[in-house]
Fold these 2 entries.
Entry 1:
Amino acid sequence: MSRIVAAMSGGVDSSVAAAILARERGDAEVIGVWMRTHGEMPEGYELSRSCCSPDAADDARRVAQILDIPFFTLNVEREFGERVIDSFVDSYLEGSTPNPCQACNQYIKFDELLKRGLAAYGADAVATGHYARLEHRDGRWRLMRTADADKDQTYFLWVLDQEQLARTKFPLGDLTKPEVRAMAAELTLPTAQKPESQEICFVPLGDYRELLEERRGYAGDPGPIVDADGTTVGTHTGYAHYTVGQRHGLGVALGEAVYVREVQPRTNTVVIGRRDDIAQRTFSVAGARFTAGDAPSERFRASIRIRHRAPDVPAEITMIGRDRFAVETADPVWAPAPGQGAVLYDGDECLGGGRITRTEA
Amino acid sequence: MAIYLDHAATSPLRPAVLEAMRPYLTTHTGNPSSLHASGRRARQGIDEARESIAALIGAQPREIVFTAGGTEADNLAIKGAGWAATSRGRHIVTTAVEHKAVLNAAAVLERSKFEVTILPVDAQGRVDPLDVAAALTERTTLVSVMAANNEVGTTQPIAAIGEIVRGHGARFHVDAVQWAAHEPVDVDAWQADLVSLSAHKLGGPQGVGALYVRRGTQLLPQQQGGSQERQRRAGTENVAGIVGFGAAFALTHADHAARTAETDRLRILADRLRDGLMELGDVVVTGDPVDRLPNNVSVAFDGVEGGDLVAALDLEGVEVSTGSACTSGSAEPSHVLLAMGLDPHLAHGSLRITLGPETTDADIDAALAAVRLVLPRLRAMPGVRSKATVPA
């Protein structure tokens, strides 16, 4: 009998994903696994909404008991620390916007968990509670958007290649969030009414500044906030505390809304602009990966999404070598932030993507 | 049905023990402190268990304090005896391989201006009695050494240490929780003043233990309430549990010939299992090859995470553990293995297999087959810490 690992975070989505798999058991034994990704939060930061709190482990275990499946916790603190938390911190220090959920999918859920699942449990696939679909068509696996456009999570999954997709299951692919909640309630899972987790699981209360100091000794060094002309209009607390597109916390009053346009680590400068100043039609992308293995062609049309839940924009993609591409969009897109994922779609199929590069000289 | 080879974590309740407990869960449900007939009947169950256990360890019934388990017994011994003797001194001597119940209780005292000396052990996990002697000062009031280690099964020279401690005048505590599941306890031969025992390691129920307290040993109670257990442990007694403890202890120790035969049987099975594991290569035996509990097979595999190995074996229907059940799930390697000087990489691959009365020859074959099946898969995983060379 084959075995499949159900990654269980303690949230409602992964609970129901495991339940669906367990209900269909017969062709595969389902093993529930909760991953310990980082040490416990300091006292007072215990957020039950965070997927990595001890409460979350309790919830996952209760669900596994109800589903009558084996349940293990897997310690991936070291891997998560290096691949997700450190790179999150380093992104800020490079003046970029990190994408921890993509990193977690790429290196932890669909890599470390697959490897450990095979070694420890003899499992040949991993199932998660992501809202995404898989189709096998014309000889390859295709990563597809879900029916529930609002919940679609392919933006975080573009990093998966054929080998990973072949060993992946998304049991929630055809469901909407209300259907998932209803199913959880019907199964009397303790996670049925659990609120959505919004914050990054390893950042207590959403404030990442402490993490910069703790992991890399970055305490923040005040520097100038300048406008497009280079005129100093304010002072910031340290460039790494700012990301492109950020509006709040600038402490600048210019009579109209201003946003971070650029973060310059070398000069410790934060450049701001008006809303219209930070829309762009062209930008570059590095670290490209395609779910099919290769880009469709040297030059192709696709729709592009540059942040979760942002609208897709038609674009012309020009490959630069194998793992970089240039993007030219039909209409300006707002605040392409260095480091953020630029994800390509052909209709409902996610073709892959990359990370927006810095344009600063 | 899974093959259960984790008796050091807990042992299955013996059917005869359940039968002994049953009346106290169904009809004899009085409070032993009550004056009426129901109370008296419950009291009788406790008195009989107390007498039985006391007789089997060479103690008087009044010297037995029932607790909610081995951990509570250890805490009561360390904190209770430590605090009761502060007029004479605040120095406690123990070892690096003790159960966390002892080490963490001592650590609490350390925060209250006690001085705690943690003695090292050799590569087999043995304490040198001369080290104990050397550690004693005029301020020393308590020495705590376990009779047998819960992770690697190494047994300690308790009588020799007891002799030294008695000569000095400090009180001597022995954690005999694992030991008592296999070997007889003789509090006078050990010259022990305090001995921790637990029911569920020897076929009794979970949640019951006892502390032997030699007459004249001062003890400061660690919880306040009623006057139960001669004011040494407040709270209504776990009557059915204590009755079960008494029955399990008698079953384990009453028949000397049967116990000896069982010890020999376990030793033969354990040796065969250990030899079979050694054939797999890149594995070391941890603990003392001779001075050890008969049912304990402890090894460390190179290039494997112990937790992954335990999960893999569980899915094959073989239930074992990494080290102690109390610390599993933590990313830190066992404090016992590190104290024994085992390479931390190897310590991550530790496996503890502990046999019990129902373990058969066929179980050993099945366990070996399961390890053979999963080990190559685990070792093929990239990125697991590996030590280049494994000591012979």
Note: The helical segments of chain A are 12-23, 54-67, 77-93, 100-121, 162-166, 177-186, 209-216.
Entry 2:
Amino acid sequence: MTETTFTPVAGLVGGALIGLASAALLLAEGKIAGVSGILGRSFFPAKRDLGWRLAFLAGLPIGAWLATRATADALGFAITDDPLLLVAGGLLVGIGTQLGSGCTSGHGVCGMARGSKRSILATLTFMASGAATVYVMRHVWGAG
Amino acid sequence: MHSVVAGVCGIVFGAGLAISGMTNPAKVLAFLDVFGRWDPTLAFVMGGALGVTAIGFALARRRASPWLREAFALPTRSDIDARLIGGAALFGVGWGIVGLCPGPALANLSRGSGEIMIFVAAMIAGVVLHRLVIERKP
């Protein structure tokens, strides 16, 4: 397993930028910056509702690319190379976020920021099942 | 105009994800690994994001409409059902297996990594599967 170091300042600064983008999308466009929702409704979209979604989604890798270059990738990148885990994880994230109407951004940031009971419960649930999954994989099965 | 604004928001959002370290799956897994070498960074990311977003909602509440559109598009449901909890639980399992949620997964497309391509393809397959089978679209 890859060990990481606690980086609270980078976390707060990056988090504030995420919040700034979410607040701006809300105040300017009236939209919730929930990535799974924006992605999900990009398939079979309502009329005249696709452009802003694709623009937002395309912005994500552009912003990440710029920031990664500017910081010389200070915080690194390490991911499993097991295709089975990648496919299983991707499928579960795709289906789960659509079924549960949100992910870390939609429920965890936007929903909690507006005090939604549904979002608070969803966030507690995916945090708990995420922690349980890591516990089983690392401390029961002993995988990376 | 809407696309330009949304695109800039996406860029700032993606930059925030990368600066916070949340585009590194190892860091996310280290946050979820509460019984291992715990890395609490993600809590600070959420704290920073929540604080600023809450200000946004406070400002939005004082307005009848957003700057560029006629109305706010906010969720109206308040019921707790099995789909919400079950979906969130499934999402958490996938999140815990790889350490990626949808935002960082898409942001990482900038790396051109094969692993990210596989994950994003599977994630989109899951999204489309849900829309076709469960929501029965189109």
Note: Chain B touches chain A through 119 residues (CB under 8 Å).
